[in-house]
């Protein structure tokens, strides 16, 4: 068996220990005589799996008691519609901050369900490389004070722009507007104060587990604002009242997520992950900055700890770079097709050794081609 260094943006690398445990339990989950995939979601075995997963996620993120944790389907793109369907029933106004490809998608989708206003944007449409490299200054945000919510994307997976500091809604005079955040690609990568948000959501396939699962953390008082046409399977109140089992949940994905939560606890929790993630990111950004050969365009104060896009200054070398990477077992380094260049995703499950090896390759390639 050979395992590569997988720098893919998602579905992404998972902790090897988790995959090994899942393999060992594949045919017979802890004496049940069944695979988790074969279990009734209402049987006592699976009920214990989902309860433990929720408890561990609550512990890892210190989720306050007045928040519901929902395990849903449809991924984060599904949530782009599910959120307005659930929140714009009484008040149609929703404000969004545009910091990259994913917030752009959220804005476009939400516009189908409500009165959507882009309160700030850092888009530079004219830029050849790096259309999004900053977060607009919070003082310049034009948020409607009567909006049902303000939506941000916490980490722009494609553009590599991350909120390393959250906006202070009180200081903005927006105490009454709940802040919603897409945390698909940085959930559990560092401590996040859930109480600052009305809603946090993300697809699982970056930092949690297999695709097919979306995690939603929502403040209870926001469960009563759905539009009449909101589908039952995506109706937060219905999902909450049924313990994420109104419909059959993605059971196997929840099981793997639970194993990842256990693994994170064994690593020391999210504060310990943050220290590791900062060390990995610093190593990689320092290597890029120190060379005249590679470039990352993102402003330092919002460089993502999870997704590091970069360009070779001589883009005619792109193919040679990727071929050499592949030959050394570094996979999925090609940047998203919409931005080009390269991207190294260095999620929780990417080891420091993996990043060190990549940095070694960056230097080696520069030496032989620079
Ligand atoms: C990957 C990603 C999505 C899309 O997730 P799907 O599971 O494909 O719906 C949305 N937002 C962000 C920030 C992402 O990284």
UniProtKB/TrEMBL annotation:
Its cofactor is pyridoxal 5'-phosphate. Signal peptide: none annotated. Residues 4-358 form the Aminotransferase class V domain. It is an enzyme of class 2 (transferase). Keywords: Amino-acid biosynthesis, Aminotransferase, Cytoplasm, Pyridoxal phosphate, Pyridoxine biosynthesis, Serine biosynthesis, Transferase. The modification N6-(pyridoxal phosphate)lysine is found at residue 206. Transmembrane segments: none annotated. It is found in: Cytoplasm. It holds the Pfam family Aminotran_5. Catalyzes the reversible conversion of 3-phosphohydroxypyruvate to phosphoserine and of 3-hydroxy-2-oxo-4-phosphonooxybutanoate to phosphohydroxythreonine. This is Phosphoserine aminotransferase.
């Amino acid at each position: 068996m050979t395992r590569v260094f997988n720098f893919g943006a998602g579905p992404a690398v998972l902790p090897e220990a988790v995959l090994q445990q899942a393999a060992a339990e594949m045919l017979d989950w802890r004496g049940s005589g069944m695979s988790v995939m074969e279990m009734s979601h209402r049987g006592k075995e699976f009920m214990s799996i989902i309860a433990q997963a929720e408890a561990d996620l609550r512990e890892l993120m210190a989720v306050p008691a007045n928040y519901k944790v929902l395990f849903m389907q449809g991924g984060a793109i599904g949530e782009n519609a599910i959120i307005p369907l659930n929140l714009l029933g009484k008040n149609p106004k929703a404000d969004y901050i545009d910091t990259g490809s994913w917030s752009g998608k959220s804005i476009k989708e939400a516009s189908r369900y409500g009165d959507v206003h882009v309160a700030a944007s850092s888009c530079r449409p004219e830029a050849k490389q790096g259309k999004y490299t900053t977060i607009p200054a919070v003082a310049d945000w034009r948020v409607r004070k009567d909006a049902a919510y303000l939506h941000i994307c916490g980490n722009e997976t494609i553009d590599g722009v991350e909120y390393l500091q959250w906006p202070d809604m009180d200081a903005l005079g927006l105490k009454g507007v709940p802040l919603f955040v897409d945390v698909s690609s940085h959930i559990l990568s560092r401590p996040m104060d859930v109480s600052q948000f009305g809603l946090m959501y993300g697809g699982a396939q970056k930092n949690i587990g297999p695709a097919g699962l979306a995690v939603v953390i929502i403040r209870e008082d926001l469960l009563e604002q759905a539009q009449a046409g909101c589908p039952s399977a995506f109706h937060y109140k219905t999902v909450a009242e049924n313990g994420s089992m109104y419909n059959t949940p993605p059971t196997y994905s929840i099981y793997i997520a639970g194993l990842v939560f256990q693994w994170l606890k064994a690593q020391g929790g999210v504060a310990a992950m943050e220290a590791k993630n900062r060390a990995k990111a610093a190593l990689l950004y320092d290597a890029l900055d120190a060379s005249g050969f590679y470039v990352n365009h993102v402003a330092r104060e919002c460089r993502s700890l999870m997704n590091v896009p970069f360009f070779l200054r001589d883009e005619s070398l792109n193919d040679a770079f990727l071929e050499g990477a592949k030959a050394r077992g570094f996979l999925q380094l090609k940047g998203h097709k919409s931005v080009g260049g390269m991207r190294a995703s260095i999620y929780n499950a990417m080891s420091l050794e993996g990043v060190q090896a990549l940095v070694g390759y960056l230097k080696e390639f520069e030496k032989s081609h620079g």
